[in-house]
Structures are given as C-alpha cells and as structure tokens.
Amino acid sequence: MTNFHKAPATYVGEVLLNVQNLPRSVDFYKEVIGFQVLEQTAYKASFTVDGKTPILTVQQPNDVAPKQVRATGLYHFALLLPSRADLGSILKHFIDKKVRLQGASDHLVSEALYLADPDGNGIEIYSDRSASDWKWHGTEVEMASVALDAESILEEAAGKQWTKLPNDTKMGHIHLHVSDLKEAEEFYTKVLGFDVVTRYGGQALFISTERYHHHIGLNTWNGIGAPIPAPNSVGLEWYTLVYPTDKKRIAAVEALQAHHAPLEKINEAYFTQDPSGNRLKLV
C-alpha cells in the first residue's frame, strides 16, 4: 500500500494532549489502546508503538480544567493501523474488554472505529483501503459515512490475538474544531500548502498532501465563532506537522511570517497556531 506518512508528504506525526489524571490516562492508553510507554514523569507520559518514536504524549497541568464544550480544539486524533486484520483484532479486543464505542463507519477510503479517552478526547482507529480503490472526481476523493461491516472485519482478524498496537501504526490524521471554515481553509491551503480533497457542505473539509484522503479534517460542528479553550483545559496542546525536508519547513515558516501568523522558535522547532487557536509544531 502507498505510504502517505513519509517523504515527500507533509503529515501529522505526534499529538500532545492535556488530561486531568495522568495515571488514569496511562492505564487507558496502555491497557485499552495498546501503546507502550516511552517515557514517564510525575506529570507527563509519552507513548510509542515501535519503542523509539513518540506519537502521542499526555500531560497533566497543575491547574488543569475539564474539557471545554462548544470550543475549538480537538475533535479526534486518528491512529492508522497497518491492515484490516489489525482493525478486526482491536475490535475483538474492545468487545472482550467491554469498551464503549461512540461510533463505527465505512468511509469508502477507510474503515473506522470511534471512542474517547477518560477525559473525552476523541480517538479514531482505522485502516485504509488500498489507494488504488479510492474514487477521485478531479481533485476531490469520494468519501462517505455508511454502516461498517463489523462481522467481515472480525472475520478478517481470523482469531488474531490483540496484544498491542502494531509497530507500523501511525498517527494517520487529526480532525479539528475550528471557528471559521473559510479562515481555516485559507491558512492550511494558501499558507501551509495543503490541498482540499473533500468538502462536507459548508461545515467541514478535509485536506492533505500527496493525494491522501486526509491528513487534517476541519469542521465548525461546535459552532461558527466557537471560542478558543482556556490554555489549561483538557484537550489539544499541540500537534506536529512533519515536513519532508528542512527547506520545505523553512518555506512554510516564511509563508507564516508573510501571513503575520503567530510564530515562536523553541529549540529547533517552530510553533504557530491556526486562526482558531489550534497550536502546531513544525518539525
């Protein structure tokens, strides 16, 4: 299968979340989701699938507040499994552990399960159909949300025992609440160079590089003009955009400067935020 999460693509690499109770979150992400702990302190833990690379980090701020509703921020982060059999294996694992799912959908390009962590941070776990089976209409890829064939997915697992997230699991994409879809589209396409690949009316759009079905989703389902959550609120702290070369990353930084977007350099990473306050780390 084509890999849309390496050069020359620009893609989401790691997500940092605020949580209310670190031990509770560590237990959830290890026992329910199947991550390995890479590093842990009293107030922060990073998770990995390959024993080397962090793809999710959670932290417990001193004055952390519960997740703010009807605000911008995280809708969900999405873990991309290597195969449909892996999706069937984790579905069987969720059934055995009586994990409550929030939804399950066939998106034509992918098949997905939805749930939330103990703080209400949204999670999608999915596997892609072969890119050769995706249907493109010009620059837009055909996507939908139809009933998932769970029985077929479970059969695909063929009794494969779930023990942990496979080593090839990736941060497939991130989906964000924004306050203004037009502003968000301009920022991500004209400034950061993403392409719109699907639109859902005037409320959501999906963007990517290298003709992936989406690396980032954007929606106004929390309301047009939704406020930015408090800095100490449960939810998204930042996510990384991984550029294929430093030249391309610097070009993105220069475009941000020309757009007068907020920009801060910390060590070797550049931080910015979209017009809805969602924070990005450019690496």
Automatic annotation (TrEMBL):
Q: Which key words tag this protein in UniProt?
A: Oxidoreductase
Which PANTHER family does UniProt cross-reference here?
Answer: CATECHOL-2,3-DIOXYGENASE (PTHR43279)
**Statement: the UniProt record of this protein carries the keyword tRNA processing:** no
Q: Indicate the enzyme's highest-level EC class.
A: oxidoreductase
InterPro entries xrefs: Glyas_Bleomycin-R_OHBP_Dase, Glyas_Fos-R_dOase_dom, VOC_core
Under which EC number(s) is this enzyme classified?
1.13.11.2
Decide whether keyword Oxidoreductase is in the record.
yes
| Recorded superkingdom | Bacteria
A Pfam family found in this protein is: Glyoxalase
- What protein does this entry describe? Catechol-2,3-dioxygenase
CDD domains per UniProt: VOC_BsCatE_like_C
Taxonomic source organism: Sutcliffiella rhizosphaerae
